[in-house]
Write a structure and sequence with these properties.
The structure is a single chain. This protein has about 350 residues and is an alpha/beta fold. The protein has two domains: about 140 residues, Rossmann fold, CATH 3.40.50; about 180 residues, 2-Layer Sandwich (Dihydrodipicolinate Reductase, domain 2), CATH 3.30.360.10. It contains 13 helices and 16 strands. The strands form three sheets. A seven-stranded parallel sheet has the order 3-2-1-4-5-6-15, with helices on both faces. The termini are far apart.
Length: about 350
């Protein structure tokens, strides 16, 4: 079952699944949106809320959740999966959601959060470099996202994550930081970019996968380092304030509290990036041993669809694995099977 099939990412996942010979049951809240998609793809459908999902799972073996906001949908969908003994996957990249899924105790099913871009790519590459540096105590990740546009849901998720400020992992614990701290220039396969530490779910998945106790995750942003350090600390307050603004015609959307803030986190990719995304990882040990590499994944939404379907296939072909991550279960293989290309390691 694909829950959230009519969103931008859900539709891409449905199309990818059909192209690979699958016939998922399409599910979501809105029958009016489900019917045209189901008819176009020749697939069955069911309209149901997350809270009532347990009533319609039927003989489904796995549920893939692609409907946000994941903080609201993940809990009831995971609970329904546990009750029915059905595997659970989602494409969330939210710290709280991923922590809850990975904290689930179950031996009956496989429960894997964050099976889209960029956690599949970052987690796979993190394991790849960590395996080359036994005993590494520091992991740095950087994500350069290239997409053909951006969905409202994705922008809202990014802004919600940034509302509470920055996060890094230090000595195994998540530590709050001032957003913009640690911004630096990083050489990438498409030129030098500004990398800004951000509070993404990669801080949870890669810790679970590698056990490395000090992790920083950065996103490339189209602003100078100085601007990142000066302007981004104000972003959490802007996001929080925007939540209290009344809805008005022609008002600024709540997921875009200010033009400067919006452009910093979700500006359109430049022409040389638009169809390409990249992930960088470096593992370092206290004695100076290190390994790093770049993974090219193509357009971000397309990679999410491919990685989600690849993970579905891998889970259905495996015995129940309990609550785990993509890379802990399958290494770098899912990222590569979804079209990722390992560019270099050192």
């Amino acid at each position: 079952m694909l829950y959230g099939a009519t969103g931008r990412t859900g539709t891409l996942i449905a199309e990818q699944a059909v192209a690979r010979g699958h016939r998922p049951l399409l599910a979501g809240r809105n029958a009016g949106r489900l019917v045209p998609l189901a008819q176009r793809l020749g697939l069955p459908w069911v309209a149901v809320t997350p809270d009532d999902l347990h009533r319609v799972l039927g003989d489904s073996r796995l549920v893939l959740l692609a409907a946000g906001p994941f903080a609201s949908t993940s809990g009831p969908v995971l609970d329904a999966s546990l009750r029915a003994g059905v595997h659970y996957l989602d494409i969330a990249n939210e710290i709280g959601v991923i922590e809850r899924v990975l904290g689930t105790r179950t031996e009956r099913i496989t429960a894997i959060p964050a099976v889209g871009f960029g956690t599949v790519a970052s987690d796979g590459l993190a394991r790849h470099v960590a395996d080359q540096v036994p005993g590494a105590d520091r992991l740095d990740l950087a994500i350069l996202l290239g997409t053909a546009g951006s969905s409202v849901g994705a922008r809202a998720s990014r802004m919600a994550a940034l509302a509470d400020g920055g996060r890094v992992r230090r000595d195994g614990r998540l530590v709050q930081t001032r957003l913009g701290n640690g911004a630096r220039r990083l050489a990438t396969p498409v030129g030098v970019r500004t990398a800004v530490p951000v509070p993404t779910g990669d801080l949870i998945t890669s810790y679970h996968t590698t056990g490395i106790s000090n992790i920083t995750v950065a996103m490339m942003m189209p602003i100078p380092v100085t601007a990142a350090r000066v302007l981004l600390p104000a972003l959490p307050a802007l996001v929080r304030a925007s939540r209290h603004l009344p809805r008005r015609r022609n008002a600024v959307a709540l997921d875009a509290p200010a033009p400067a803030a919006q452009s910093a986190v979700s500006a359109p990719a430049t022409p040389d990036q638009i169809l390409e995304s990249y992930v960088w990882a470096r593992a370092i040990a206290v004695d100076g041993r290190a390994a790093e590499g770049w993974l090219r994944t193509g357009e971000g939404y397309a990679f999410t669809a491919a990685s989600a379907v690849s993970t579905v296939e891998a889970v259905l072909a495996s015995e129940p694995l309990g609550a785990t991550t993509v890379a802990a279960a399958f290494g770098l293989e899912i990222a590569l099977s979804a079209g990722g290309e390992l560019l270099a390691t050192a």
